[in-house]
């Protein structure tokens, strides 16, 4: 076996041990630069790379040669300008610096609540998406069809081209390859982000809380379907960026945000699918709620007291994040290493810990990269366990959780195979995977336009 293959097996082993309730050989290092930061680090024009992702191929290689990580330290992007621009997006717009900006926008009026609650997927396609994407003008169907087709083709092409930068590097450098997973949002966040907006949802909480709760329940089966991995393994995880809770009063969080999200996490857990949460901002006042989530939930913290987090959550959940990105910019190399040592001393004992930063790196210069590299190598060399293989905290069992699929997902814009066969009874069953696969891909694309 080659050295690279051996290294990859070691990396797979330490990540799997963390998820298998074992103390690993050493703390896994999970660092990743955004697509924009990767291009910037190599001196490539960010806007140009956004339009032609393969331009960042050599940049991605340079990052791998510079920065230590057990996972690939560079990745693709959820947002390329091609499909947004074709659709005349008002919610995602490229700025003059090449970064995609997200202004405050409203896609759903208060008067739309009843229709959303009654037919949520129909409402998203008929009312919300056309408001956010002006090229999808229902009064100009031919132009709309052409724009939609071009945007989907651009989406597929750019995502594939970006991943073409990354996949070969995973094998070349022996990185941890990850596992099949999914991406979703909490139902309340989905309602807030691009349907009602930050301002709009805060008015709704006070004026029409019952409709907000009903809308979260209506969106629940859509988000559950969206996040479901195409293949489930014991290491599959659904990732959520969590946006609104730290801006809410706890009584509103408890009544309106938490119930549908907790159901979502429990249902995935009942199917053997893990949950991974980006706890944006400071979740200290919600730490007891986090404890109630399924065992082995991966919690990526931005802020918080490390000792409190470890004490309250460290035996049940997998802790990561918290290393301050700001320190890479403002601190010396030794200050950064000292912080990494402090984190290892507090968070590593007992396992269930993966080293990572508190935020995604969207911009980095040479000095910051030197600091980050010093930190990564320090953790690699000093995050070793003397009790590898011992049991780490509580064990996950999917039988501990209840499946709640919510109401059936139904829409005139989505056909199951049975419905398709009823309309086309001469279609061969051989075509099932192809036709149902197209249905699923379009569902994923439409729902992604609102994340």
From TrEMBL:
Limits of the Uroporphyrinogen decarboxylase (URO-D) domain: 182-358
Could you tell me one molecular function GO term of this UniProt entry?
uroporphyrinogen decarboxylase activity
* One Gene Ontology biological process: porphyrin-containing compound biosynthetic process
Pfam families per the UniProt record, alphabetical? URO-D
User: Per its UniProt record, what InterPro entries does this chain match?
Assistant: UROD/MetE-like_sf (IPR038071), Uroporphyrinogen_deCOase (IPR000257)
Gene3D superfamilies xref list: 3.20.20.210
Specify the protein name.
Uroporphyrinogen decarboxylase (URO-D)
User: What organism does this protein naturally occur in?
Assistant: Oxobacter pfennigii
């Amino acid at each position: 076996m080659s050295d690279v293959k051996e290294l990859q097996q070691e990396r797979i082993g330490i990540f799997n041990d963390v998820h298998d309730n074992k103390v690993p050989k050493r703390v896994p290092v999970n660092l990743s630069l955004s697509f924009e930061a990767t291009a910037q680090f190599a001196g490539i024009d960010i806007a140009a790379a956004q339009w032609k992702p393969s331009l960042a191929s050599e940049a991605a290689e340079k990052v791998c040669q510079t920065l230590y990580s057990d996972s690939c330290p560079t990745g693709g992007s959820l947002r390329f300008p091609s499909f947004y621009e074709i659709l005349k997006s008002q919610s995602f717009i490229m700025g003059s610096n090449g970064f995609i900006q997200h202004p405050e926008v409203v896609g759903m009026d208060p008067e739309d609540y009843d229709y959303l609650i009654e037919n949520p997927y129909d409402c998203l396609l008929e009312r919300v998406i056309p408001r956010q994407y002006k090229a999808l003008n229902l009064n100009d169907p031919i132009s709309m069809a052409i724009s939609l087709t071009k945007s989907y083709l651009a989406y597929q092409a750019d995502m594939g081209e970006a991943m073409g930068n990354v996949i070969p590097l995973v094998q070349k450098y022996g990185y941890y390859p990850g596992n099949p997973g999914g991406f979703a949002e909490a139902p309340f966040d989905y309602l807030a982000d691009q349907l009602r907006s930050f301002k709009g949802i805060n008015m709704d909480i006070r004026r029409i809380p019952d409709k907000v709760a009903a809308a979260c329940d209506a969106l629940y089966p859509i988000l559950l379907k969206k996040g479901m991995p195409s293949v489930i393994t014991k290491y599959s995880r659904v990732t959520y960026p969590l946006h609104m809770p730290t801006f809410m009063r706890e009584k509103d969080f408890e009544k309106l945000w938490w119930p549908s999200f907790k159901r979502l996490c429990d249902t995935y857990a009942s199917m053997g699918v893990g949950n991974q949460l980006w706890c944006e901002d400071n979740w200290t006042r919600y730490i007891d709620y986090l404890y109630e989530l399924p065992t082995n939930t991966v919690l990526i913290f931005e802020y918080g007291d490390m000792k409190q987090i470890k004490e309250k959550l460290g035996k049940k959940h997998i802790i990561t994040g918290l290393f301050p990105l700001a320190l890479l910019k403002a601190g010396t190399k030794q200050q950064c290493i000292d912080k990494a040592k402090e984190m290892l001393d507090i968070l590593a004992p007992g396992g269930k810990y993966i080293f990572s930063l508190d935020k995604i790196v969207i911009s980095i210069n040479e000095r910051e990269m030197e600091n980050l590299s010093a930190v990564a190598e320090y953790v690699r060399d000093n995050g070793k366990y003397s009790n590898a293989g011992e049991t780490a905290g509580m064990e996950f069992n999917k039988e501990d959780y209840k499946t709640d699929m919510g109401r059936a997902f139904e829409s005139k814009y989505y056909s199951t195979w049975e419905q398709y066969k009823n309309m086309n009874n001469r279609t061969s069953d051989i075509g099932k995977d192809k036709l149902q696969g197209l249905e699923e891909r379009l569902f994923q694309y439409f729902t992604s336009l609102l994340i």
